[in-house]
Amino acid sequence: MQMDVLCYLQGEFVPLEKAQVAVNDRGFLYGDGLFETIPVYKGYPFYAEEHLLRLKEGAEIMGFPINFEILSLQEVLMETIKVNNVKRGFLRLTLSRGKGRRGLSIEGCTEPLILVVPFFSIPYSQENYQKGFRAIMVRGTRRNSFSPLSRLKTLNYLDNILARMEADKRNADEGLLLNTSGNVACGTVSNVFIYKEGGLVTPSPECGILKGITRQIAIELARKRGIQVEEKPLSTEELLRAEEAFLTNSLMEIMPLTAVEEKPVGKGKPGILARDLKKDYERITGCFS
User: How many other CB atoms sit within 10 Å of the CB of residue 39?
Assistant: First the structure.
């Protein structure tokens, strides 16, 4: 991260190294909060309204005492970009329930905390897209499709962290999580798509996934190409028999998935549809690689 970074914290901009969160903040103590990762292209927050709407819906589900206007938060995002001169990168927007007394009760939590931190690069390279990602099936934990938290972008990412640790230990680019029914749910930070018989399949929200913003964009782009997209349970067998597969999130955009458990997906190289959808995505963002 570059020098003299200013983050937005509770209504003002402060140097990142001087930003402080209270020791009794519930986001810190319990993971009681939400976050959004918002990409920045040419100095503009991409699909900001959709990210903020998802944040607001999550806050309502979690019972946060907050009534923020999406437009005012969009202004905060734009100002964060401006004061830091972010041209290409992303913003991490964190919403915590704020300070509270000891214990799980939320009584007395009246002032949620809002933090926006800018980042100036994207953690994926052109080589990643040229080779595609290699994934493992995570063995140590599963996605709880019965929990409403599986469909929220909460600050509690411990299952994902355990899965990421397993993927790192096995030298994989991503770890794929099964759900409580034994079907493929998602990656540690990504949604999953397969292509077979002329159509796309991606796990439905009922499978215990986060409805990713880029996931929805990919669905819309595919349908514009006349490709049918089905949201339904996805078995590991279907994944391994797919003609091609790819992963999505707001930073990786559309990433080819070329191997799972060291077995090739399709021909074991980035597929044509993933390539075409990536180009369509780049046309939307105005960034051509």
Answer: 24
Same domain for 261 and 176?
Answer: yes
pLDDT digits (tens, 9 = 90+) for 67-101: 767 778 999 999 999 999 999 999 999 999 999 98
How far apart CA 149 and CA 151 sit, in angstroms, is 5
Give the residue-averaged pLDDT of 228-238: 97
User: Tell me: the pLDDT tens digits for 40-64?
Assistant: 999 999 999 999 999 999 999 999 8
> Both 60 and 144 in a single domain?
no
Tell me if residue 213 falls in helix, strand or coil.
helix
- Token pair, residue 75, equals 């202004």
Q: For residue 129, what are its two tokens? A: 């897209």
State the DSSP string of 124-176: --HHHHHH-EEEEE--S--B-TTSGGGGS-BS--HHHHHHHHHHHHTT-SEEE
pLDDT tens, residue by residue, 205-217: 999 999 999 999 9
Q: Is the pLDDT reported for residue 288 higher than 50?
A: no
Give the span between the Cα atoms of 23 and 100, in whole angstroms.
10
**Closest of 32, 88, 40 to residue 64, by C-alpha:** 32
Same domain, 139 and 269: yes
Q: In this predicted model, what pLDDT tens digit does every residue of 256-286 receive, in sequence order?
A: 999 999 999 999 999 999 999 999 999 999 8
Amino acid at 263: K
The reply to whether 1 falls in a domain is no
Number of Cα atoms under 13 Å in the Cβ half of residue 265: 31
Residue 15 domain boundaries: 6-119
Report CA torsion sign: 168, 274, 231, 284. positive
